[in-house]
Design brief:
Layout: H1 7-28, H2 63-77, H3 79-90, H4 94-121, H5 126-139, H6 150-174, H7 178-208, H8 210-222, H9 234-243, H10 249-263, H11 274-310
Subunit structure: Homodimer.
Cofactor: Fe cation; Fe(2+)
Family: Belongs to the fatty acid desaturase type 2 family.
């Protein structure tokens, strides 16, 4: 059984791993420019410059696509809050600081390109979008009080980045626009590389301090919420996204939770002490219940679709 390490000791021990994975990331990341993914020829002035302000009929996006694009964009907009959380819990020294800066710069492109696309194509109401941005960013993103520290944060961002990748990728499909699909494929590719960095660091933490890391991991997954949960209309938009398969419980379990736990060999490891074993048992029970919840959710969704079809109200996504 290994003794508990302080956060500073963990960061110090893992800095070589951070440097190795930073270099890996830099060797694999592709430079790209938001302006190359926006159909500028579709743009025109709004009323303030002598044009016409937004009207719902101008949008070619379905209600589902609008909800998903707004949710994903407002999530990206809260980047200053995420930067603060990561900077406070990782460090700004050495490879850690270089990663925090690089990650922030890469994530910032996502908000830039998505907003430019939506404004140029008039996909959503730009005034309502700006009002929601102001509310969401003013509120900021705040981790629960017992979620402090490197181990919890690195576990959370591993799952969150992968969840965001899934959400962006499926949003691109539901937009039914090849330009939007290409743009969100590019964004999703970034998120995947970010996930790999965090996943590798969290895996190294599991090897270094198994009990501490396992406890943090269980806390994250049993309390998991997407980073945009405080934004306006988050619940409504989240329900729409789940209903139409952009991000639902099955995707959360089968495309996010299970693959990462398998990569870390969580349920076959033999290096846990009593505390780690207890956390692993709690996680196993949670994952089993999540599988049951998936079935219940899908049964409810199927019944809802059947009722809507019977009433002739089923709308295409």
């Amino acid at each position: 059984m290994t003794k508990d390490l302080t956060q500073l000791e963990i960061l110090t021990e893992l800095e070589p791993v951070a440097e190795q994975n930073l270099n890996r990331h830099l060797s694999m990341a592709k430079d790209w420019h938001p302006h190359d993914y926006v159909p500028w020829d579709q743009g025109r002035n709004f009323a303030a410059l002598g044009g016409i302000d937004w009207d719902p009929e101008q949008s070619r996006l379905s209600e589902v696509a609008k909800a998903a694009m707004i949710t994903n964009l407002l999530t990206e907009d809260n980047l200053p809050s995420y930067h603060r959380e990561i900077a406070q819990n990782f460090s700004l020294d050495g490879a850690w600081g270089t990663w925090v800066g690089r990650w922030t710069a890469e994530e910032n492109r996502h908000g830039i390109v998505m907003r430019d696309y939506l404004v140029v194509t008039r996909g959503v109401d730009p005034v309502a979008l700006e009002q929601a941005r102001m509310i969401h960013m003013t509120n900021g993103a705040h981790a629960p009080q017992d979620w402090g520290g490197f181990l919890v944060n690195v576990a959370y961002v591993t799952f969150q980045e992968l969840a965001t990748r899934v959400s962006h990728r499926n949003t691109g499909k539901v937009c039914q626009d090849p330009i939007a699909d290409r743009m969100l494929q590019r964004v999703a590719a970034d998120e995947n590389l970010h996930m790999i960095f965090y996943r590798n660091l969290c895996g190294a933490a599991l090897d270094l301090v198994p009990d501490q890391a396992m406890t943090a991991l269980t806390s994250v997954l049993t309390n998991f919420v997407m980073p945009g949960h405080g934004m306006p209309n988050f619940r409504r938009n989240g329900v729409l996204m789940a209903k139409h398969g952009i991000y639902d419980l099955r995707q959360h379990l089968e495309e996010v939770v299970n693959p990462v736990l398998k990569k870390w060999n969580v349920f076959d490891r033999n290096d846990f002490g009593p505390r780690g074993e207890k956390a692993r048992e709690e996680l196993a029970a949670f994952v089993e219940k999540l599988g049951q919840d998936v079935v219940k959710f899908e049964e409810q969704r199927d019944r809802m679709f059947a009722r809507e079809a019977a009433r002739g109200k089923l709308q295409p996504v």
